[in-house]
Structure formats: structure tokens, C-alpha cells
Amino acid sequence: FKCHSCTKRLDGKFFTKDDNPYCRKCYTNTTEQCVVCKQKIIGDCVMNNNTYYHPDCMKCNICDEKLRNFYHFFQNKPICDKCFKDCLQNCSKCGETIEGTYYTLNDLILCEKDFKEYTETCGACSQAITGE
């Protein structure tokens, strides 16, 4: 039973990554780096879009509270549920809460559906825009 990287014989404690066994030294060289503290991650980690965090480094990007159990990623940054709800916008046209991409046009905040309707009609006369 040998280390996948250096082929050193493994006795006792070893680490695995991608179903391969590693000695401590080689495993440390293959681990990801925490985006917050810049230290190598050995053990538990949280991953989002190829960004890695130590669980204790996971803090809300807005209020800086430690994140436990339930959290969101908003614009690829971790945030707590309270701050996530505070960041949500309401569509100026239909009034629905927008939980994804929203659009601003002049002073309006529009959901995707209403933005598409708005951009496909003339702002002056409200007629459908067609073209060649």
C-alpha cells in the first residue's frame, strides 16, 4: 500500500483524494488553498465555483458573521440568509421578488421576463419592435 504520488509505503495514517492514497507531505501539496486565509485546506472544506474555504473562514461577505448550516452565494460571495433576503429586489413592473438576475433600466428594477417584454416594445408608443 503506497502513496499515489511519491510511492512511499503507507503505514498507519494516510489521506485520500480522488480515491487515491497519499502520505501527509504529498497530500498537503495536492490540497486546495482557502480563498480567505490563503492556507492549504486539510480536512473539511466548502467549495463554490472552484473557490475553496475552511469552514471557520466562511463568513458573510456583508455582515462578517460566521456562516453555519444555511447560507447563500450572492454574486459568488457567501452571505447569510438575513443579508440575502435584504439583497433581494422587487420588480418595478410585476412586483415579484427577484431571486436571480435583475435588470435596471432608468430608475426601474425589472425581472428577466418584464425586461424582455420592455426591450421588445417601443418605449415611446408601446408597439412591438420588429425588424429585418
Account of the protein in words:
- This protein is of the alpha+beta class and 132 residues long.
- It has 3 helices and 10 strands; from the N terminus they run ββαββββαββββα.
- The chain has helices at 24-30, 81-87, 112-119, and strands at 15-17, 20-22, 46-48, 51-53, 71-74, 77-80, 89-90, 97-98, 103-105, 108-110.
- The strands form 5 sheets. The protein has a two-stranded antiparallel sheet. A two-stranded antiparallel ribbon has the order 3-4. A two-stranded antiparallel sheet has the order 5-6.
- A hairpin with a 2-residue loop joins strand 5 and strand 6 (77-80).
- The protein is elongated, with a radius of gyration of 24 Å.
- The chain starts with 14 loop residues before the first strand and ends in a 13-residue tail after the last helix.
- The mean pLDDT is 84.
Summary?
The protein has 132 residues and is an alpha+beta fold. It contains 3 helices and 10 strands; from the N terminus they run E-E-H-E-E-E-E-H-E-E-E-E-H. The longest helix is centred in the C-terminal third of the chain and has 8 residues, at 112-119.
Mean pLDDT rating = 84
How many strand segments? 10
Shape: elongated
Low-confidence stretches: none
Which strand order does the major sheet show? 1-2
Distance between the termini: 69 Å
